Fold these 4 entries.
Entry 1:
Amino acid sequence: MPLLNDLTAAVAAGKRADTVRLTQELLAAGTGPQTIVEQGLVPGMAIVGDQFKRNEIFVPEMLVAARAMKEALKLLEPLLASAGIKPKYTAVIGTVQGDLHDIGKNLISMMWRGANFAVVDLGTNVPPEKYLAAAQEHKAHLVGLSALLTTTMPAMKETVRVLKAAGLTHTKIMVGGAPITQAFADDIGADGYAADAGTAVDVAKQLVAVAA
Ligand code: B1M
């Protein structure tokens, strides 16, 4: 549908006013809110994620696109809620204990929302027990840990240990952040690792597909 394609392009370009207008036009034309999310907004954020992975765009452009999507979601969320439609997968995310950096974590959170995950953001300086409680409470398919300091990498390791020890069978753990590598992720027993926000969406989708 041309309007859905226009919406995808508007989100990818971070055009907030166009994104809202096209969402309103699609609703007025009788398009369901779920279709608008899945076939209009989510593909737009997927384009942004791919461009970011290829270094064609940078953090500011991603933030602008995510804000455009957020404005459209404000219109759609009440309609989705009243129709009882929820995202299929839930993710919990936070920056590990002792670490106050949240710009990267917020980007991942926005990109996961853009991929139609329900995201519970625990903020920064999150102790292992808080991740565990949130994963249990929200029956999370995915728990995301971010760390920006070499000094907080042990907190990431401890969080993975606590989550694994709890035996959450359908919850996968994904880690990332500037000092984190695939080798470290493997070493601490995480289920997945991503180096950037675009890859974090691909890895999240792979992990939940296995967990579900
Ligand atoms: Co801090 N800081 N900082 N800092 N800071 C770094 C990380 C540092 C490398 C700077 C430096 O020395 N060159 C250094 C760490 C050195 C090290 O550990 N080896 C450092 C330090 C030392 C500190 C303090 C200790 C400084 C001090 O007080 N002496 C202190 C620590 C406070 C604390 O956390 N307890 C501190 C404080 C701060 C500010 C508060 C001033 C501020 C944070 C503001 C905020 O986040 N709200 C800050 C900032 C801004 C930085 C730099 C400049 C930028 C970090 C950033 O936001 N990058 C950083 C130096 C740098 O990176 N150039 C630095 C942009 C962001 C989009 O990237 O977070 O890497 P990033 O996220 C990426 C990927 O890593 C990945 O995807 C994201 C998007 O591509 N990713 C994931 C991240 N999380 C992921 C999770 C995933 C998957 C992928 O799955 C779940």
Entry 2:
Amino acid sequence: MQFAGSHILSVHQFERADVERIFSVADDMLPYAQRSRVTKVLDGAILGSMFFEPSTRTRVSFGSAFNMLGGEVRETTGFENSAIAKGESLYDTARVLSGYSDVIVMRHPTPGSVSEFAAASRVPVINGGDGSNEHPSQALLDLYTIKSELAARGRGIDQLRIAMVGDLRHGRTVHSLCKLLCLFNDLQVVLVSPEELSMPAEIVEELRTQGHAVLESDVLEESIAHVDIVYSTRIQEERFASQEEADLYRGRFRLNQSVYTSHCEPNTVIMHPLPRDSRDNARELDDDLNDNPNLAIFRQTDNGVLVRMALFVLILDVADQVDQHARDVNWYTQRRF
Ligand code: CP
């Protein structure tokens, strides 16, 4: 694909070569994310960051990634702090804010809303999550993490065995990840959820059409026995009509050290897009796994900065200029990756 000036709205827009290009540029971002080098390649550029749903990782890591490239960030968070609360349309909002920014990242609760916004924007727009639809940058950082975890075990992504667990109906991260995995070959995908929260049929069909083996189950223990990756997800309570309805499913699948030791192969990688729900009635990914070396959740969050830096330099067409605008840091830093 042509990255320069493009919106990033869905993983469907990527070919395998595009993903490999993003990952190659992400690798090059490591000295900057580690803070051994700083670059001013985006000096003067402005990121418009618009998050109309709660976010910790996506909002802050996109902002940090832009800052690490020398750019500045202007933010609005929540409908209540935006003129959308006064009835302004997405069209008008996009026309206005794209006059203030060089690139925009947006999260919104309605599926398709970020695409609608992008159609009216005069600058590239990145989808930071649109309801239960897609979260393309999360899928890219997840796949980048899968690639690096498997590389450390002498493997590639083809022939991957992965179990996705939890609220697969509403979880946009697993929707985007499944679509992205369709670019690879001969995968075994186990989808573990209550029947009411199963993966949308069109995504299962897409996986099968690409030749991947897909098994659907509502039993955790047997489903995680022969996989390379267990990808746990939270019950997406914000997508349910009531807390009581979400409570029916919370805590149904709990991965903890005991379950892991009893049922997983010794090197199975544990992933989660975060936030995990650490309340007592949930704990889909228990804190007692925190010292397990196969727990990759914080490597995922670190990798998010690399992948988001890569997206910015590709979209703004400066990937080849990053090092020209760089220097070593002059303050004390600790290696963080
Ligand atoms: N994974 C993810 O999207 O996290 P946030 O909701 O904190 O951005």
Entry 3:
Amino acid sequence: MRYAIISDIHGNLEGLQAVLRECSLAQVQAVLCSGDIVGYGANPKECLEIIRQFKIISVAGNHDWAVSGRLDFSHFTDDGRRAVEWTRGHIAMEDIAYLNALELSIKNKDCILVHASLYEPQQFRYMTNLSKASISFPLMDVPVCFIGHTHVPGVFVEADGKIYNMDNSTIEIQLKYKYIVNVGSVGQPRDGNPMASFCIYDTQLQTIELRRVPYNIHEAQRKIIEAGLPRTLASRLAVGR
Ligand code: ZN
């Protein structure tokens, strides 16, 4: 099976379309999403339609549940709160119901998918270092876990009792080890690289490949400004921060 795993689309239609084009060129058979389909960007409705049309299986992100009313978002940043409220006014009841029904984690025989961490996933904590990763590894009974949330791609590995980071863009999976792969963000990368981020997981070859794709950032920015969303949500796309 050749999977693509995407995350943190955040209503960025141009980013999502560019990534899905790349997936089809890469002969991906199934696309999975680690959450945050909406929030920040100007096309939440269009992104939700694509997710459903292509039967992309997604878990819940904090923004998805904030928009649906399932998560208190009073602690979000000002931009985040304004985006949640704007998004609520620009999607349909059926979209709200879809977001509200998303689950915190989904597992198949090859991998498990969660937005932030397997440990207390409902808290949506950022997995930013080895000690934060270490409490999720014991909860894995498949070799690979895909996450998003930080918008920074990267890989944590647990091998022979040790936990460490890998910064290769292609990883050869050893089935006796465990891997937590942050696939980065399609719609609002924050690692200083403005290109959309996602990964391809090939279970035949047992490889995971982190990829970057250029997309029409100007168009995504233009729509954010035109929508009256905070201007910083547009400007940050150009710098990937
Ligand atoms: Zn996010």
Entry 4:
Amino acid sequence: KGWRRRPLAAAAHLILGIFWKSHRRGRFFFSACFFEDSNRNTKLHMAHSSQFQLHARARAPPPRGGGGGQLQRPCLLHRRNATRIRASSSSGASIIDGKLTAGQIRQEVALAVSALTSSGLRPPGLAVLLVGERKDSATYVRNKKLACEEAGIVSFGTDLPDTATQQQVIDAVKAFADDPNVDGILVQLPLPDGMDERAVLSAVPIEKDVDGFDPLNLGMLATRGTEPLFVPCTAAGCLELLQRYDVPIRGKVAAVVGRSNIVGTPTAMLLQNAGATVTVVHSQTPDAKAVCANADIVVAACGVPEMVRGDWIKPGAAVIDVGINAKDDPTKKRGYRLVGDVAFDEAKEVAGAITPVPGGVGPMTIAMLLKNTLDARMRSS
Ligand code: NAP
């Protein structure tokens, strides 16, 4: 159709396409639907079709010589087609490298955003609301904004003082909820003492709930036959690591230590949905060690430094350590070092694969936030 209506444009597209194909040794990046008309949906379809081309390349055989912790092939954000990464290992368990994987996901998001914008569409927008002067929260927010910038996602922000009232915070959330350029809203937690977190979070509309904290999202995750709009980022990051490192889940036994709404519970649901038999360990569990020692996959998210010891791990199990704790260490310049909820040095002698802290689940959380924001943008059209 396009060829007849706009022969010059079609010829130019063909030449560019041939150039692109020979240059990248891939397929045509954009499909011919470009010529059908220029309405938003068609353009959006074009952006989607470029994603599918990336999928197609992701499914191609890996290049020779890849491996050893290197990403083997490009891909886009689709679980079943996610890039498989070989875990690296010096001695003991293989290392599941969250930094490397997060970098790959951020690249994939950046590619998809650039496909959107190069077709004349609005880039995704993420709004981050910071209340108070906590230094750690300010650092997290700064890192999220930087990550957005790198991926081509537009970031919006409102910083309110500690003295802001709950109503002022809710009004700020509602302003972003009404802004058509904002696809995702994130309220940096914790909020100052005395503020009702649930009341503030419930002002975030579910279609912009990129943190996945809305009870409806969690409910849909727990209900068979329904899919949540968003999965909480840290939990999604844990699953993404297991899947990209080809850790078998279906038919396996998993233990999740911790049952918080943002990490433990959604991770347990994701593992169960992926076919694992899951036991959730919490502060009232009588024999946490025995539960973990029986598991092929252990996810530790209890906030107790190095609680999961080496003798809690079944030989060959995969261990995902979500914990981030500061432990006094006078040998360090800053007087402490970061440790997880797993005693890494002991566990790595027994496990088959393990995430380090730092450099494991931590970087995945921001990467999954970018992915959720991109998903929100795609859905908004
Ligand atoms: P949380 O809300 O404090 O929840 C901790 C959970 O662990 C609770 O369910 C608690 O059980 C359970 N627990 C505490 N002590 C226990 C014990 N001795 N034995 C068994 N279970 C115990 O923490 P969270 O927000 O889920 O975070 C967990 C960890 O992940 C923290 O270290 C946090 O810093 C880290 N984190 C990391 C990221 C990241 O991006 N990597 C993101 C979020 C959190 P009860 O329910 O019975 O109290």
